[in-house]
Amino acid sequence: xxxxxxxxxxxxxxxxxxxxxxxxxxxxxxxxxxxxxxxxxxxxxxxxxxxxxxxxxxxxxxxxxxxxxxxxxxxxxxxxxxxxxxxxxxxxxxxxxxxxxxxxxxxxxxxxxxxxxxxxxxxxxxxxxxxxxxxxxxxxxxxxxxxxxxxxxxxxxxxxxxxxxxxxxxxxx
Length: 173
Fold this sequence. Notes:
- This protein has 3 helices and 6 strands.
- It is of the alpha/beta class.
- Strands 1, 2, 3, 4, 5 and 6 form a 6-stranded mixed sheet that branches.
- Strand 4 (89-105) and strand 5 form a beta hairpin.
């Protein structure tokens, strides 16, 4: 009987311990969220994206890269897109490569799908401090079949690359 009381008492203390630790665990976990919105200094509120340059032979990538980068900043940051004169950050970029390569083949060497890769080079200037605070390259890709629309694959690869660019800028501060 004494042994039963001892085990019951241990269980009771374990429940109390779990109950007391629960608020601390909640506080610890609630502080572990991922956000890129607060990593930049507070004075950085507005961003201007200069029209990208196209260093490839594929026409139209300059406008598409610029458009997708603007969309990525709008959806992935709390920065406001602005004109050059009122911006706190200026993004200057180039599409430096575009590649469409066979990705998968059948046993008789017919192409099943292509891998389309787009690469950006960019630099971000802190206009307030007049210094470059990030510079680098990012790339991403999409896969598409020969009977699918290549333009959609280009759009997907460009969007994914723009998302990576914004993420790199915001998280490498």
